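Hi there,

I know you've been waiting on this one. I reran it after we fixed the sequence typo, so this is the corrected version. Both the input and the resulting structure follow.
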Amino acid sequence: MKIGEIEIKWLGHSGFLIKNSKTIYIDPYKIKESEKADLILITHGHYENCSVEDLSKIVKDGTRIVATADCQSKINRLNFKIKIEIAEPKKELTFGDIKISVFPAYNINRNFHSKDEGWVGYLIKIKDNLIYHSGDTDVIPEMKNLTGYNQLNKKFIALLPINGRFTMSAEEAVEFAKLIKPSVIIPMNYENSEKKYVDEFIQLCKEEGVKIEIPEKE
């Protein structure tokens, strides 16, 4: 998927590659050998989000990694000269012309991703385009702070977990869409057995006039 000069590739699960002036990965997991990263964003320390095996495929000397504190010991195993930034909700970071805001991510009615853990999602602003990777989360009250971004930016792309068990359901994702009104939603964080939730989400989006994209896994 391309947004102007920005390229977005879904790598499976919660993993994405975003390319513009920088090569940015988010939560790489079970990826192929690929181009090296300028910047890596990790939402939390679960094995499918912070995978040392996959990080080792894409890091180089000088790669910057932004990750929650529970990821630090894993990342320190990498035998490269990297810089680690600890991610906390409300933290603001700048990498050249890219601005990143750290956003909370947690469950409300499930116990898999506790708010107390301090796990996160990311708002990535590249020029006048915004990409929101929500991390593993339900629809949470803090998401109301995202309203208006669709008017302030040319494109507001939301990467949302449609899982139905560990994260938001199809109905909850549509609730997000109605509240935030992003330009487009890309579902993520589902396996083959959970695709029924994405199929349900696609149907609900058609009924509600919500634009979605289902990219092929790279």
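Quick highlight: The helical segments are 52-58, 72-75, 149-152, 170-180, 195-208.

Best,
R. S.
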